[in-house]
Amino acid sequence: MTGEYTCVIRKHELTAPDTYTLLLEPEQEIPFRPGQFIDLAVPGFSLRRPLSVTDCEGGTIRLTYQLTGPGTRALSEYSGETLNILAPLGNGFLLPERGEKLLLLGGGIGTAPLIFLAREALKRGCQLTAVFGFRSPDRTLFQKELAGLDIKTFLCYDSEGENVVSVLKKEGLAGIPFAACGPIAMLWAVDEVTQAPGQFSLECRMGCGFGACMGCSVKMRSGMRRICKDGPVFDRKEVLWESFR
């Protein structure tokens, strides 16, 4: 059940250009599922910032965020000891059955929620392959984490003429059930080339973050759906990409 929590900041550091890692320890352990997110109150701003959960181990919440505007800039410069969050929010990924294959497809900061999913899937003995794409090698995220997990990994870079979709085709991975998160253009292209069942974690501007304001409503095949409450993870058969133009 969603609640409001005060969290102690355990670490807050720059980990790639314009990208920060934030470790929070809430006043009590929060039962997250991979793909869920938190709504974080940035001091001085009325609207909270939705941030996906990168990982959650031993009660500590790991967040990864990029500078995208005044709010995240203020967060990166915040020097206080605590932050307030609403959590857990949204519907996360459906975990694969034990021993099944799973393909993780991430673009840029969209790789963040896939780390938590990877850890939970590995606990089920699943066979994982990851294709993570970034603009350039200096913007690579989670390379250390991937190296420490039993995951066949492909890293690709726009600066070198490769992306997630081109690797997907080249390596013959289009038939493996997948979970994907990244820019809409990347997700749309993934949907066009894959034949397997899949899940997409979608992003859009949010107001409340828990479904009351209806500000993140998007037309899906089954009708209007709220990204924050009904998602952010949707089955591929549900998504109407034209709604995100």
Topology of this structure?
Blueprint: E1 3-16, E2 19-26, E3 37-41, E4 49-57, E5 60-66, H1 70-76, E6 82-89, E7 101-107, H2 112-123, E8 127-134, H3 143-147, E9 151-157, H4 164-170, E10 178-181, H5 184-193, E11 198-201, E12 217-220, E13 223-226, E14 233-235
Parallel strand pairs: 7-8, 7-10, 8-9, 10-11
Antiparallel strand pairs: 1-2, 1-6, 2-5, 3-4, 3-6, 4-5, 11-14, 12-13
At a glance:
The chain has 245 residues and is α/β, with parallel strands linked by helices. It has helices spanning 70-76, 112-123, 143-147, 164-170, 184-193, and strands spanning 3-16, 19-26, 37-41, 49-57, 60-66, 82-89, 101-107, 127-134, 151-157, 178-181, 198-201, 217-220, 223-226, 233-235. The chain folds into 2 domains: 3-89, Beta Barrel (Elongation Factor Tu (Ef-tu), domain 3); 101-244, Rossmann fold, CATH 3.40.50.80.
Mean pLDDT over all positions: 95
| Number of spatially distinct domains | 2
CATH topology of the largest domain: Rossmann fold
The poorly predicted ranges are none
Q: Count every beta strand, where a strand is a DSSP E run of 2 or more residues.
A: 14
Shape: globular
Protein architecture, described:
The chain has 245 residues and is an alpha/beta fold. It has two domains: 3-89, Elongation Factor Tu (Ef-tu), domain 3 (Beta Barrel); 101-244, Rossmann fold (3-Layer(aba) Sandwich), CATH 3.40.50. It has helices at 70-76, 112-123, 143-147, 164-170, 184-193, and strands at residues 3-16, 19-26, 37-41, 49-57, 60-66, 82-89, 101-107, 127-134, 151-157, 178-181, 198-201, 217-220, 223-226, 233-235. The strands form three sheets. Strands 1-2-5-4-3-6 form a six-stranded antiparallel beta barrel. Strands 9-8-7-10-11-14 form a six-stranded mixed beta sheet, with helices on both faces. Strands 12-13 form a two-stranded antiparallel ribbon. Helix 4 (164-170) runs parallel beside helix 5 (184-193). The protein is globular. The two termini are 33 Å apart.
